[in-house]
Amino acid sequence: MTHVTVVTRQGCHACEVAEADIARICADFTTVTWDTEDVDTDPELRAEYGDRVPVILINGEEHGYWKVEEPRLRAALT
């Protein structure tokens, strides 16, 4: 099973776009789950990712930030 996390921030338009992209892409994979985590609810997340949201993590490892690169993400999920 593969898990994607989108590190987001309230009121972030780019985060909303990334969440929609992730939801659409992950729906094509039966072995992929996803969720979001608000960067401002955890001091460690804020220190690591606070200036780069949205950040996409795959199984806890950073995959990308600021936007979803769909071909690259699909390749990583297959």
Would you give an account of this structure?
The longest helix is centred in the first third of the chain and has 14 residues, at 13-26. 37% of the residues lie in helices and 29% in strands. Helix 1 links the parallel strand 1 and strand 2. The chain is of the alpha+beta class. It is globular, with a radius of gyration of 12 Å. It holds the Pfam family Glrx-like.
Low-confidence stretches: none
Instruction: Indicate how many domains the architecture comprises.
Output: 1
Overall average pLDDT: 97
What class do helices, strands and sheet pairing give? alpha+beta
Number of helices: 3
CATH topology type: Glutaredoxin
Protein name: Glutaredoxin
Organism: Actinokineospora iranica
InterPro entries: Glutaredoxin-like, Thioredoxin-like_sf
Helices and strands, with pairings:
Layout: E1 2-8, H1 13-26, E2 32-38, H2 43-49, E3 55-58, E4 61-65, H3 70-77
Parallel strand pairs: 1-2
Antiparallel strand pairs: 1-3, 3-4
Pfam family, one: Glrx-like
InterPro entries: Glutaredoxin-like, Thioredoxin-like_sf
Organism: Actinokineospora iranica
